[in-house]
Amino acid sequence: MDSLEKFSWDDVRKHLGVGIQKASHTLDAMITEPMAIEIQESDFTHYQDIGTAFYGVPVGVVISSFEGPVSGQALAIFNDQAAQYLLSSLVPTIEAPYPERDALKESILIEVGNIIFKSLMSTIVKRGGRKFSYRIPEVQTEGHFEPDTLNKFGSFTDLNSILVETKLVSGPYSFGNIAILIQFENVDGWLSHWKESLDVRLA
Fold this sequence. Notes:
The protein is 37% helix and 28% strand. With 203 residues, the protein is an alpha+beta fold. The protein has a single domain, classed as CheC-like (Chemotaxis protein chec, 3-Layer(aba) Sandwich). Strands 1, 2, 3, 4, 5, 6 and 7 form a 7-stranded antiparallel sheet that branches. Strand 2 and strand 3 (72-79) form a beta hairpin. The mean pLDDT is 75.
């Protein structure tokens, strides 16, 4: 895509880091032990690539869509270790039957996913005073990750998504992975919006 060559991915990556740091600080304030979200990798990617790291792995997927000058959907994909860590950290004394425990885990994943979405979207999309509407996040925790059912925009080979791979850490220890995928309905529209917001900041 020619338009990708006309903007600075380094600038986007910097703002992704700012968004993840915001989310990390918010979650750290909610948990008794020090915790952080660390970016492992971020890239502009094909939607199909998101599935390769999660095939055959139990996950929880939080999904939200956004509409406005730029439209698309955002996914936060938690592997089982990350989901269990967040559950035990945010509700450390829980002793409940599995149905209630599962419902609580879903609520926690939605809350954490929403924190991540808002932090990221405020740095790479919601800029320049533009108004966006967000769908209330939904969660899927049954079975394995199935990207076929979640792809809403374009073909699997379209280069239309930002993928951010992160891990949860506390001190020297890692407690699972979270992948965030932001998929744009019209990536050229987002690129124009991004360039416009940069021009405003630099003016």
